[in-house]
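Hi everyone,

Forwarding the result from last night's run.
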Amino acid sequence: MLLYPMLLTAVLTPPALLVQVAMVPGLALSAQAPSTVTVTAAGKSQVLALSGPPDPAHPEALARVRDLPVSLPSAHTGPVTVSVKLFLCDKARGLCTVQEQSRRVMLTPGRPVTMTFTPRSARQR
């Protein structure tokens, strides 16, 4: 008896996708250039901007990056490609770079998915 309502909820609940950027010490996201997330599902792409509060010590950088919930059509299930384009600045060196990362995930109704992207510092590459 309990299985039917749970199954119905899972089928009627649209897929949920949350994109996070986990910053590493010494790197900051530039507040002057548009860092973006591109989500491609069923041949359609949507580009969303990353945001966050400014860093008081470095006004040209963001103190942190806000989590980004992505709205998808309720009927969509299947593979989704998530790409990030990050404009990063090394606080110690004053050097700015662009990093791009891409991942693919399978979405199912009623099952939330969190994708965390971690930029690499110049020392890690």
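The chain has one helix and eight strands.

Cheers,
N.
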